[in-house]
Design a protein that fits this description.
mainly alpha, Ferritin, globular
């Protein structure tokens, strides 16, 4: 598997006077939230690398996952620089306890690793890719476009890792029907959990972005609300089905129970 990384050059300077200060403040808060998300993700991927090692995965797979954790720390710096450029003060979350990665007690080590790969990369990272693309589609500011594209390049690779990992597990899933069925049952929960966590509950009731907010990367509320379902149905579910995982049924029957 290829190393997950990207090069990032210096972006054009941000020009705050070109926009309504209220638009800058709203978008700056979004970048602050992204900073916190990237920081937490670094520790999630570190824990995932440990689960992969427990499952007996090759060293290069574990190494790529650890590099993904490094990517997330670099993204944290990118977000911090963006917040500063927009006149804010970056604030890292106080991690009294590291973000938890599900242990899936009673399951095999390979089942645990595969489940968490599917959730963190195939579902969450692919949704992140779609979110960044939606922002880029409307974003005009050159500084923010450069920052967003730098992060997006890594997120695409992170999502690809998940599908490559699932493909490598195909023989094992084919030979172990009970494990394959357990993965499909877990996906019902994973799809529902991610939908609850990733879809803004009030997206359709939020006011539409102003012209300046749009230029700074805030997509229309309808696009944001539909993004998760569109990404799962259009990309993630078909890709997993192609690998022999009953993702279509899992999506249809998704539930937190």
């Amino acid at each position: 598997m290829a190393r997950a990384s990207s090069s990032e050059g210096a972006p054009p300077p941000f020009e705050p006077k070109a926009y309504d200060p209220r638009a800058v403040a709203r978008v700056r808060e979004r970048w602050s939230g992204q900073l916190r998300s990237e920081y937490r993700s670094a520790f999630v991927f570190s824990a995932l690398a440990g689960q992969m090692a427990e499952a007996g995965d090759p060293v290069d797979v574990v190494a790529v996952t650890l590099r993904m954790a490094q990517d997330e720390l670099r993204h944290t710096d990118t977000c911090a620089d963006t917040v500063r450029a927009m006149g804010g003060v970056p604030d890292l979350p106080a991690l009294e306890r590291l973000p938890a990665l599900a242990l899936h007690a009673g399951e095999s080590a390979r089942q645990r690793a595969l489940r968490n790969v599917l959730l963190t990369t195939c579902i969450s990272e692919m949704h992140a890719v779609a979110s960044f693309v939606a922002s880029l589609d409307v974003m005009k500011d050159p500084h923010l476009r450069a920052r967003t594209r730098a992060i997006l390049a890594d997120e695409v690779l992170h999502g690809e890792l998940g599908f490559a990992y699932a493909e490598a597990a195909q023989d094992w899933l084919f030979e172990q029907a009970t494990e394959r069925d357990a993965v499909a049952r877990y996906l019902r929960f994973a799809f529902a959990w991610a939908e609850r966590e990733l879809v803004p509950a009030r997206a359709q009731r939020m006011r539409e972005p102003t012209a300046d907010e749009t230029a700074l990367g805030i997509a229309p509320s309808e696009a944001v609300h539909d993004l998760y379902a569109t990404t799962m149905r259009g990309a993630v579910v078909p890709a997993l089905e192609h690998l022999g995982i009953a993702a279509e049924d899992a999506w249809t029957r998704r539930a937190l129970a």
